[in-house]
């Protein structure tokens, strides 16, 4: 029991100081996060008189757990349903914010004569606002239930997704040194594929498993199961070379569809609070106050740029997406800071050894300053709107008013399902099923080298091994292939119905329609076959054997067609049920 | 973000397997703890095919956090109030259990030809029952609110305290190789002193501080403050060379007196469940199944000894303390297993390198087996009592019945405060105040070498340094010394009142009474002075200076007497208030 004293001492120093600081900053009405960072600086290696931390590595490891629990909680608050509600506006606002801030950051970096990589990472650091800070500030001000707050949360969700895409892209750029459009497309495509398949498979499996566990009423069992899923999924994600932050966020988003969401949130909160405190303290540990003095000038410039840039970009985006000026101003003022995501991006740069050492402390300093201003900015939004309204020349006000009216007139009258709505829905279904098929074949290709070790014993021939693996992938993906075929056929029928009008085609109408609805799916399936072949080129059997496999598969398909349709329908219903279920209060 | 994959992988393996196992064992209606240990064995280094854990050290460290949180939760459930209610019975039962099991364990070890140290540790391993298992089993069987369960919890509390004393004594014996009565007394005296002072000072400070923090309604703040106190205190305890388990238990017991107990329990539960799962898995990690086969015979013998020995010793103790036969049987059957404390003691032996390697796996195996039987034994208690009642010859039954009646007749009729009650109370108060005085001087002696570094600058003379430190200690302990004096005086008055009766002493009655009540305190204070001098011999000033210090102190005392009385009264009231406060629901 007497070993590991160093570790306990570190933890004691971190937690005791965090405890004092959380109370102190609460009294000063400042975000506790700032206090944690300050505590980290105090006990850190750069400030005299004592070197209080002995085993910085272990504390860093615990801090990483903080990232996992922070992103997991963020995922739990993520909701596909909520995202759809505020969807369009949130996407426009978030995109305009990220693009503008990336550009501003890059330009500032270049103006200071930093390297292109430093400038790029600076742009990425400035792009994403801090969900933690915003949620906390809005809760403190009692504004969490207002409609503009809902919109802000929507923007934050979109930012989280785009931020994760940015993490992946930045890793790619950092490793190859450049951003080729092709690589970016492939990277984003893979990410999208991975996210789609994880979400679909996860939502099919995880909430059901948790429902079963939750029946026992034992909090311990539920918690350990939740953590089991969380870490297992994180491990899978890390093995696929994505960041653990992405994994934690995705599995959180999957569990957000569970009926027991509120119980899970309740159980995870203490873990999140404990380890995120450690995480923020470790940020302070890495902060060298001397650097802040050396870089006082860039810090000041960047802070002003973040506040002004985010108010303008996000506020304008919100306004352009059709909200009134007051809401736009409140949204812009609320998101005008950077936070945990910026630290993650900054530490990514450090880990990959592509950014200079000064970037991290600058990010922390700018985050601290902007966080400091956040509550005041939110409170200042309404007075500022009024003052702007008075100061604005009537003509300008008129133009703004007309823009709003014009947008309103563009919106379709709501009614029954439109052709556009139906089409969109079918296309979405086809895409999801295609994603699953692609994932199955990609997974088989990735897994084949490991699997071949086991098969080699009773099947030494390499081509035959390919046949076995490829056939297995084909059988697994069969229900989804059938679904793709059927959905494509209904899409073709629908489009034929619209595009081929009796007025033009005369008595050939129905013949042409049938031809289209028969031909399109067959051609599509050929395309699917080519796609699958390309994805699974590593395990594609030689042509002769491939033909044989396809023939057998065709026979099998004829026998199993009904079964495939049933299986797929069951899964689809299960998915919809999970989505439609409201979490228990 | 990509470093530390090994750690995440370990955690993922541990948590994922723990998740599966918790569900499986719940279905099999077996304690989850067994499942965790089994999971540990599976992923452990002794079982093929894979070596699944990479960084065993980090997982072990996290497991140690499990011990901290387990003991802290145990402390939170500890209640001085509850202990007083079932006090006498619990103490008799726990003592008879621990003494008998220590003896049985030692004898078994000797019979198998093990070394005396192994045999001693075996006895200690068998002595303490498992709070976790019992609480869980009683909750599962729906018996948690029954009166025998309350008694069991009382016994467990006494066992926890005695167990901690045993930990301290065992460390001492292991390091010196022998148990001298003197060292044992000093060790236990120091432990008692430390526990008393910690509890008094802690209960004065911590619940008040937590009340202040809790006003904010922020769970995060409360949790971080609680953890801050917990780890800071653990650090202090570890620095004083006690086990971290003791520290966690004590600070838990201190927080149990907080008004916000239930909120704290709620916040700590997820941390405890997570890390205790890891702790139990690490126990499995250390378990070599081959050892179990080699030692099948001792394991079987010890398992039977634990079950039979605990039923007899604890049941008999309960009966002798005046409970009926059915309650005694139920208590005995409930405590018939060993658990977490046994692992802590076994790992202490390993850490100190005084026990053989086979002791740990034996402890784990016996714990697993006895845990397995616990629910069945609890359920079997009532039928067994009935059968025993029928099978018992009437004469024996009569003797048992008469014993109960005799005990009942011994009990004093309840009424107003008795002289005995009053005396006991004053003596307790004197003891607590003396403990604080002793702690102040001991603390000053310990701290002097560190302090002298700072003083040396402006006070190079070593004797003068002693004067400063000793005087400081005297001033700090003055309110408590005054209290000791005043309480001794009232005790002397009370005793004089009783012992000196007018019938005997005649007209000298009041004179003798006054003489006693004046003399006794003065003599006592002389004794206190000698005690303090002995405790602080390291910093006691030379005689000449000492006399000067004492004269100044006497002058100071004359001036500050009222202030000392007031300060002490304030503290006493504050302490009583905290005790009397019921936790919020």
Walk me through the topology.
The structure is a homodimer of 585-residue chains.
Chain A: H1 5-27, H2 32-43, H3 56-77, H4 80-111, H5 116-127, H6 131-141, H7 147-176, H8 181-214, H9 219-239, H10 244-255, H11 261-285, H12 289-294, H13 296-320, H14 325-334, H15 340-351, H16 359-391, H17 394-410, H18 419-455, H19 462-499, H20 502-505, H21 509-535, H22 543-580
Helix pairs in contact in A: 1-2, 2-11, 3-10, 3-11, 4-5, 4-7, 4-13, 5-7, 5-15, 6-16, 7-8, 7-14, 7-15, 8-9, 8-10, 8-18, 8-22, 9-10, 9-11, 13-14, 13-16, 14-16, 15-16, 18-19, 18-21, 19-21, 19-22
What does this entry look like structurally?
2 copies of one chain form a homodimer. Chain A is mainly α and 585 residues long. The first copy, chain A, has 2 domains: 36-385, Na+/H+ antiporter like fold (Up-down Bundle), CATH 1.20.1530.20; 419-580, no CATH class. Chain A contains 22 helices and no strands. The first copy, chain A, has helices at 5-27, 32-43, 56-77, 80-111, 116-127, 131-141, 147-176, 181-214, 219-239, 244-255, 261-285, 289-294, 296-320, 325-334, 340-351, 359-391, 394-410, 419-455, 462-499, 502-505, 509-535, 543-580. The longest helix of chain A is centred in the C-terminal third of the chain and has 38 residues, at 462-499. The model of chain A has no long low-confidence stretch (mean pLDDT 82). At the A-B interface, helix 1, helix 3, helix 9, helix 11 and helix 15 of A face helix 1, helix 3, helix 9, helix 11 and helix 15 of B.
């Amino acid at each position: 029991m007497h070993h590991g004293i160093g570790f306990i001492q570190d933890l004691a120093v971190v937690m005791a100081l965090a405890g004092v600081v959380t109370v102190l900053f609460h009294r000063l009405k400042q975000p506790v996060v700032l206090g944690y960072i300050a505590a980290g600086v105090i006990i850190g290696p750069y400030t005299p008189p004592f070197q209080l931390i002995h085993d910085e590595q272990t504390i860093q490891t615990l801090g990483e757990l903080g990232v996992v629990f922070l992103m997991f909680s963020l995922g739990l608050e993520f909701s596909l349903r909520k995202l759809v509600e505020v969807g369009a506006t949130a996407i426009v606002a978030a995109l305009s914010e990220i693009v503008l801030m990336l550009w501003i950051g890059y330009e500032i970096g270049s103006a200071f004569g930093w390297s292109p990589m430093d400038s790029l990472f600076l742009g990425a650091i400035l792009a994403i606002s801090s969900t933690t800070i915003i949620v906390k500030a809005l809760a403190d001000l009692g504004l969490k239930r207002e409609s503009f707050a809902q919109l802000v949360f929507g923007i934050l969700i979109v930012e989280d997704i785009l931020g994760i895409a940015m993490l992946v892209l930045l890793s790619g750029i950092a490793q190859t040194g450049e951003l080729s459009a092709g690589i970016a497309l492939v990277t984003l495509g893979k990410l999208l594929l991975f996210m789609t398949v994880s979400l679909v498979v996860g939502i099919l499996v995880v909430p059901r498993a948790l429902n079963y566990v939750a029946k026992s009423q034992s909090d311990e069992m539920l918690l350990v199961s939740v953590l089991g899923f969380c870490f297992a999924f994180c491990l899978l994600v890390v093995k696929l070379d994505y960041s653990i932050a992405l994994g934690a966020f995705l599995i959180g988003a999957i569990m957000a569809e569970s009926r027991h969401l509120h119980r899970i949130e309740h159980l995870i909160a203490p873990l999140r609070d404990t380890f995120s405190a450690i995480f923020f303290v470790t940020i302070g540990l890495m902060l060298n106050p001397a650097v802040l003095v050396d870089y006082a000038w860039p810090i000041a410039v960047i802070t002003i740029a973040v506040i002004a840039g985010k108010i303008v970009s996000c506020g304008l985006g919100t306004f352009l997406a059709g909200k009134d000026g007051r809401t736009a101003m409140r949204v812009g003022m609320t998101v005008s800071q950077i936070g945990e995501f910026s630290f993650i991006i900054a530490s990514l740069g450090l880990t990959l050894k592509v950014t200079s050492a000064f970037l991290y402390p600058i990010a922390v300093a700018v985050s601290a300053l902007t966080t400091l201003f956040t509550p005041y900015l939110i409170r200042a939004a309404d007075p500022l709107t009024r003052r702007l309204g008075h100061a604005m020349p009537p003509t300008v006000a008129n133009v703004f008013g007309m823009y709003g009216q014009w947008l309103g007139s563009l919106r379709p009258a709501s009614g029954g399902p439109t052709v556009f709505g139906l089409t969109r829905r079918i296309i979405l279904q086809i895409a999801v099923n295609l994603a699953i098929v692609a994932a199955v074949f990609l997974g088989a290709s990735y897994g084949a080298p490991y699997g071949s070790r086991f098969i080699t014993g009773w099947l030494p021939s390499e081509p035959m091994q390919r046949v076995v693996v490829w056939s297995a992938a084909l059988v697994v993906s069969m229900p989804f292939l059938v679904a793709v075929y059927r959905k494509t056929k209904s899409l073709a029928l629908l489009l034929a119905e619209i595009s081929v009008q009796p007025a033009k085609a005369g008595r050939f109408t129905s013949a042409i329609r049938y031809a289209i609805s028969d031909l399109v799916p067959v051609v599509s399936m050929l395309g699917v076959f080519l796609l699958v072949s390309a994805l699974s080129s590593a395990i594609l059997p030689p042509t002769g054997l491939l033909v044989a496999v396809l023939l057998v598969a065709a026979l099998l398909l004829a026998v199993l067609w009904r079964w495939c349709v049933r299986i797929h329908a069951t899964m689809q219903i299960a998915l919809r049920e999970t989505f439609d279920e409201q979490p228990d209060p």
